[in-house]
Design goal:
two-stranded antiparallel ribbon, mainly alpha, single chain, 11 helices
């Protein structure tokens, strides 16, 4: 009986240790960064304070960022939310920054994982896999630094151009992206944006489309790739002999343009 009692105490001790280790493990687990980015953007949409979330993003370690965002779906969802959220945060505080857009996008003004980074680094470096900003989607950076090289996506996806909101009136609206629904959300967002921004004249077989197709033509597979994309989203009937022209982009500042996808 005494031995049975001792065995019972030993079992309780083992179970207790396992519970404590589990609790400690949960406390030390890396932050769910995708949830953090979603909360940040959702707080902006709901006009709630974001300071604590911004501080959490600023102070998280690079290793945590690198080890937590493992798949392209996680990376795309996280960085789309971060980019779109900080556009709203920065320009709401100081809309005059938009007067010099080249400086605004290239300035290292966002603190993530202890690093000061720019909107350009997120867009061209991480989301476009180290593309040179003025290379039209055909020229990669030769020597991207560690932050960009380690955190960038493994494969480019042209649909991010219809998800990134740079604060301008002609930008796609802002949605909260999640890894689990990323594919569905990118498809919905791309279809919606292209149908709203494109004009097709069947009589002349001419399509007027967003300048995004021109600025990042390599991401879309060149002009022939643009035609295939337009056909796949039923903007044009056929790619044969269709004439493509690009609309002027309206850079008027237009914040708080939100949508649910």
């Amino acid at each position: 009986m005494y031995r049975l009692f001792l065995s019972f105490l030993l079992l309780l001790s083992i179970v207790g240790c396992k519970v404590k280790r589990t609790e400690l493990s949960q406390q030390n687990n890396p932050t769910n960064l995708n949830t953090l980015s979603e909360r940040l953007l959702q707080n902006i949409i709901e006009d709630k304070d974001t300071k604590a979330l911004e501080e959490e993003l600023a102070n998280i370690s690079f290793d945590t960022l690198d080890s937590t965002l493992r798949t392209d779906a996680q990376k795309y969802a996280f960085w789309l939310n971060i980019y779109n959220a900080y556009i709203q945060i920065v320009l709401t505080k100081n809309p005059d920054l938009y007067k010099d857009r080249r400086d605004f996008f290239s300035r290292e003004q966002l603190k993530i994982a202890g690093e000061q980074i720019s909107f350009e680094k997120i867009e061209h470096g991480i989301l476009r896999k180290s593309q040179w900003g003025f290379g039209l989607g055909y020229v990669r950076k030769w020597f991207p630094e560690k932050f960009e090289r380690k955190l960038r996506v493994s494969k480019r996806d042209f649909r991010i151009h219809f998800a990134l909101n740079c604060g301008a009136k002609d930008c796609p609206p802002v949605a909260v992206y999640t890894p689990e629904r990323l594919e569905e959300q990118l498809e919905k967002g791309t279809e919606r944006y292209l149908k709203q921004s494109s004009d097709y004249d069947k009589a002349t077989n001419t399509a007027k489309v967003t300048s995004l197709f021109n600025w990042f033509r390599g991401d879309f597979g060149g002009k022939s790739g643009v035609k295939k994309i337009l056909k796949s989203y039923k903007i044009i009937d056929d790619t044969k002999d269709v004439s493509i022209s690009y609309k002027n982009y309206d850079w008027t500042l237009d914040l708080d343009n939100f949508i649910t996808l």
